[in-house]
Design brief:
By secondary structure, the protein is an alpha+beta fold. It folds into two domains: about 10-100, Nucleic acid-binding proteins (OB fold (Dihydrolipoamide Acetyltransferase, E2P)); about 125-420, Bira Bifunctional Protein, Domain 2 (BirA Bifunctional Protein, domain 2, 2-Layer Sandwich). Helix content is about 25%, strand content about 25%. The chain contains twelve helices and 16 strands. An eight-stranded mixed sheet has the order 6-10-11-16-15-14-13-12. The chain has a five-stranded mixed β-barrel with strand order 1-2-3-5-4. The chain has a three-stranded antiparallel sheet with strand order 7-9-8, with no helix packed on it. A hairpin with a 2-residue loop joins strand 14 (about 345-350) and strand 15. Helix 4 (about 130-155) packs across helix 6 (about 240-260). The longest helix has 23 residues, at about 130-155. The relative contact order is 0.10.
């Protein structure tokens, strides 16, 4: 059976009386007796289907009377230009076939005209995706993934896929989900950190987009236990080099979304679109701490900078900025430490939301082992990683973007669950 030969967004380009087959979901119905209207949608768009007693088969009209909202139908008909129809054309029904019936009442109002709680929407995510705004967010999610991949390919990166089942902590000290791996203990990876560093030996410039896991019992609007991470690692580079790559990626995404702004208008954050030609500001850790103290914040040098601290600095609201040169005690063991006790590191923030963390990595094995020991981590746990630092490990740097958080910024959403199809947090493991 042929279900469709056109998607709905292709119909406007067709000439009058072109015969087409489309399939999709019934979004709305109006029965005026001798004239009946259906609004049918697929993933590209929606259009009006019209039945008139004098120009369409009677049995089609009778079938329409049995159709309900969200039924799945196939329509064979002809395209007709119309000044009355919102899209400038309508589809004159010649044949209709019901492919699937929908139960009623629906868990959600699919036109998006009646609000629903986030929990109800997440419990019914496939139906939530029938709502125009939700669908646009996740089409945009896909578009940003595509833009990002193209950016890295154009800049000579190699895409890699690293293991999700690991034998030891990558970051050291972070909470991991433990699992049984035959007769061994294993964990779900919280990042590709050690693997991507190793891969710079043979591939030099690598990137990975994948799902990772953190067993941290947060219950906030910006944390997940399963999340998408966009990672890079570059040989013969330092933190300033990879900061430039990151700024160029943000600029590229903003440029391309500006060109598509009409398509995604209602889900695009205007503040993000400004970065097609706006530079990202940069401050040292020490400068940010001084700003917080001047605004009355309670922070001492060497402490982590919290989102509440950043909120005190109103000039940083709704904008990207780098925070560089963090103290040694605030960063993982693999970050290069400078002679003054600061590190070649950075975070990328958007207001109080951390989007990305990165830096220059320590390529000297002795210094790396010393740092691991000082941080009271088990040196033996990292033996499989450390051995490669004896065989020509190049200077290298990299970063990791929390992709779901980046999508929060791009869409202007305040809850990370709005930019995650099936969120996993400490309270949610279904659907």
């Amino acid at each position: 059976m042929k279900y469709k030969d056109f998607y709905i967004n292709q119909l406007s380009d067709l000439t009058d009386d072109t015969e087409v087959i489309v399939a999709g979901w019934v979004e709305d119905l109006r029965d005026l007796g001798k004239i009946k209207f259906l609004k049918i949608k697929d993933y590209t768009d929606s259009t009006q289907v019209i039945w008139k007693v004098e120009e369409s088969p009677v049995e089609v009209g009778k079938l329409i009377e049995t159709i309900n909202q969200n039924d799945v139908i196939k329509v064979k008909g002809t395209v007709r230009k119309s000044r009355v129809a919102k899209k400038g054309f309508e589809l004159v029904a010649k044949e209709i076939e019901v492919l699937s019936k929908s139960k009623h009442p629906l868990p959600l109002e699919i036109r998006g005209k009646i609000g629903a709680s986030l929990d109800v929407r997440l419990d019914n995510r496939p139906i939530d995706l029938m709502r125009p705004r939700t669908a646009k967010i996740f089409k945009l999610f896909s578009e940003v993934l595509k833009i990002s991949r193209n950016f890295f390919y154009k800049n000579g990166f190699v895409e890699v896929v690293t293991p999700r089942i690991i034998s030891t902590a990558t970051e050291g000290g972070a909470n991991l989900f433990e699992l049984s791996y035959f007769d061994k203990k294993a964990f779900l990876a919280q990042s590709p950190q050690l693997y991507k560093e190793q891969l710079t030996m043979g591939l030099e410039k690598v990137f990975e987009i994948g799902t990772f896991f953190r067993a941290e019992p947060f219950d906030t609007t910006r944390h997940l236990n399963e999340f998408v991470s966009l990672d890079i690692e570059v040989a013969f580079a330092d933190y300033r080099d990879v900061m430039e790559i990151l700024a160029n990626l943000i600029k590229t995404i903003s440029e391309e979304l500006n060109e598509r702004s009409k398509e995604y208008d209602e889900v695009l954050n205007e503040k993000f679109l400004e970065y097609k030609d706006k530079e990202i500001e940069s401050y040292s850790y020490e400068e940010i701490v001084d700003m917080v103290i001047k605004k009355g914040g309670k922070i001492s040098y060497g402490e982590d900078i919290s989102s509440e601290d950043i909120k005190l600095i109103r000039d940083l609201k709704d904008k990207f900025f780098f925070v560089t040169d963090w103290p040694e005690n605030t960063k993982p063991f693999y970050i290069k430490v400078k002679d003054d006790g600061t590190t070649e590191s950075f975070d990328l923030m958007f207001g109080e939301l951390e989007i990305c963390s990165g830096g220059t990595r320590e390529e000297n094995r002795e210094k790396l082992e010393s740092r691991i020991t000082r941080m009271r981590l088990n040196l033996n746990s990292f033996s499989e990683h450390l051995k490669f630092f004896s065989y020509g490990m190049p200077p290298h740097a990299g970063w990791a973007i929390g992709f779901n958080r980046l999508m929060m910024i791009i869409t202007g959403e305040s809850n990370i669950r709005e930019t995650t199809l099936y969120p996993r947090d400490k309270n949610r493991i279904t659907p």
